[in-house]
Design goal:
alpha+beta; 2 helices; 6 strands; globular
């Protein structure tokens, strides 16, 4: 087997192991957004899943594809810019909520002003060694398109 094939095989195995580890911990999250909200309109973003123990659900509306971890996603949100999609309750591009057991949460969002693809990124975070909810236990990405 050639060196590039071995490296690709190892990368695929590592990704499969990561996905299995996330699924094996019992935390799952699914998310959906209305697929074609008109610019400036209200639309629904749904998050549902399972959290065997108390977890923090973090949902982001992003113009870029979702990141693998909550922390790397959060690093892209230092400030909110006018014209970006946002949640009605917070007026910002993200929202957080405590969940446990089976959960199903609906959020109302306002579509941005630019017609373009966007992503609803859902993350379940669990406590780390210091007890802060920073470990990404499950994630889900859902693409939608803001229309004119």
């Amino acid at each position: 087997m050639s060196r590039p094939r071995i490296l690709i095989s190892l990368a695929v195995l590592a990704l499969a192991s990561s996905a299995t580890a996330l699924a094996a911990n019992g935390y799952t999250v699914w998310g959906t957004a209305w697929h074609r909200p008109p610019s400036g309109s209200l639309f629904s973003v749904l998050s549902h899943g399972v959290a065997p123990q108390k977890a923090l659900l973090r949902v982001y509306l992003d113009r870029q594809p979702c990141r693998w971890t909550w922390a790397s996603e959060a690093n892209r949100f230092p400030s909110f810019k006018a014209g970006e999609s946002s949640f009605r309750d917070t007026g910002r591009g993200f929202i957080t909520l405590w969940v446990s057991g089976h959960f199903s949460k609906a959020f109302t969002a306002r579509a941005g002003t630019t017609a373009e693809p966007e992503y609803a990124c859902s993350y379940l975070t669990t406590p780390g060694p210091q007890g802060r909810y920073r470990i990404t236990a499950a994630r889900r990405s859902n693409a939608y398109f803001v229309t004119n």
